[in-house]
Amino acid sequence: MDEEYDAIILGTGLKECVISGLLSVAGKKVLHMDRNSYYGGDSASITPLSEMFKRYGRGDELSEEKNYGKDNSWNVDLIPKLIMANGELVRMLVLSGVTRYLEFKTIESSYVFYNGKISKLPATDAEALKTELVSFFAKKRFGNLVKNIMHSTEDGAIAEKGYVKGMTTEDMIKLFDISNVKDVIGHAIALHLDDDYLQQPCEETVKRLKLYFDSVAKYGKSPYLYPLYGLGELPQGFARLSAIYGGTYMLNKPIEEVVMEDGKVVGVKSQGETARTKLVVGDPSYFPDLVKQTGEVVRAICILDHPVCTKKGSPVGVSTQIIFPCSQVAGRKSDIYVCCVSFAHNVASKGHYVAIASCKVETDDPIKELDIALEVLKPIKAQFNSVDKIYEPINDGTENNVFITTSYDATTHFESTCANIHDVYKRVTGQPMDFSKVKVDLEVEN
């Protein structure tokens, strides 16, 4: 391993693998290492199920009496994320050609906890006319908002009379006289984490709403897609891209030291050998002295043998997302999320489901913060709880050439993840991400 590389990547999470793939495509000599024996890092899918029980120190609980089906039928995500059908990650997957290695299935529905019950978010015009989320008299006004959103400009401007650039989102919602459903608009559709957006310029919310409605229009059921066999397939796809262009991958490789000289990185030491490099990119776990904690996320991974149901007992299907806006849950400042996938996505044995409840930690009893979401999932066959710290780098890496990604946040989509990928790649190369060479090469290959 005593060689010199243009870049060394530490960790095989999605962010690191996308950056590794594009650096390789750009002709850089890339070495990619991970202390784990599997791809994905914090965004991995754990297989088989017995490995999941061992990971949480509960290997003795997996018994034939509980009948979880075939052990190797399981691919359990460690974080709950869904892919916006018209979002940035889909663009990355298509332009990079990584879609060749993946198959996707739509998420059947999207729900919101509102006025004490779980209601379906409308996905079609017909559903919008029947939804219980909006009163009969407000349906036309809600439709006017949607019409404005769909015809908004790239910078988030709308044509409604009274609109002023930079006006707050709260004032924009008042223009349409639908303030009583602002939680649905801001949290379940625009996917804001808390209520801070109400006092911020409305253009960002308009762009988020447009992304949602454009994504729904793609497939008609919900705005979300999910890869068969779990989210762990995503970093593996980009790892294959890197390998095609000469990238070297080493799993199960302990990192002993990131070697610095005169304040700049010069190499990475592993098992007594040092690989020289001009720069390092990695996830926060490899750089404890160069990151700061900004919060925590609590997650409960639940194994079910039944579909999730509304309070009326109606099944929501084999996959769904449910958002619990903070204002609808007493005492909360940020939202709670449930993502559910199943055997239909090849992540569980026949008749089983994997549901993950998650939220930002706000109290000294994180698991209890998920009670309202876990109540919807009961009875729960097995539950794996975790509280993960959120880190971000203390500097931008341009002085020491150590570029660190941020931890995965509590959002249930990859838009913030992709924004971080773009940001880190531009700091590493000085250029925006460019997929053009991949496209040319793929055309030649085909």
From TrEMBL:
<dbReference type="InterPro" id="IPR036188">
    <property type="entry name" value="FAD/NAD-bd_sf"/>
</dbReference>
<dbReference type="InterPro" id="IPR018203">
    <property type="entry name" value="GDP_dissociation_inhibitor"/>
</dbReference>
<dbReference type="GO" id="GO:0015031">
    <property type="term" value="P:protein transport"/>
</dbReference>
<protein>
    <recommendedName>
        <fullName>Rab GDP dissociation inhibitor</fullName>
    </recommendedName>
</protein>
<comment type="function">
    <text>Regulates the GDP/GTP exchange reaction of most RAB proteins by inhibiting the dissociation of GDP from them, and the subsequent binding of GTP.</text>
</comment>
<dbReference type="GO" id="GO:0016192">
    <property type="term" value="P:vesicle-mediated transport"/>
</dbReference>
<dbReference type="GO" id="GO:0005737">
    <property type="term" value="C:cytoplasm"/>
</dbReference>
<dbReference type="GO" id="GO:0007264">
    <property type="term" value="P:small GTPase-mediated signal transduction"/>
</dbReference>
<dbReference type="InterPro" id="IPR000806">
    <property type="entry name" value="RabGDI"/>
</dbReference>
<keyword id="KW-0963">Cytoplasm</keyword>
<comment type="similarity">
    <text>Belongs to the Rab GDI family.</text>
</comment>
<dbReference type="GO" id="GO:0005096">
    <property type="term" value="F:GTPase activator activity"/>
</dbReference>
<dbReference type="Pfam" id="PF00996">
    <property type="entry name" value="GDI"/>
</dbReference>
<keyword id="KW-0343">GTPase activation</keyword>
<dbReference type="GO" id="GO:0005093">
    <property type="term" value="F:Rab GDP-dissociation inhibitor activity"/>
</dbReference>
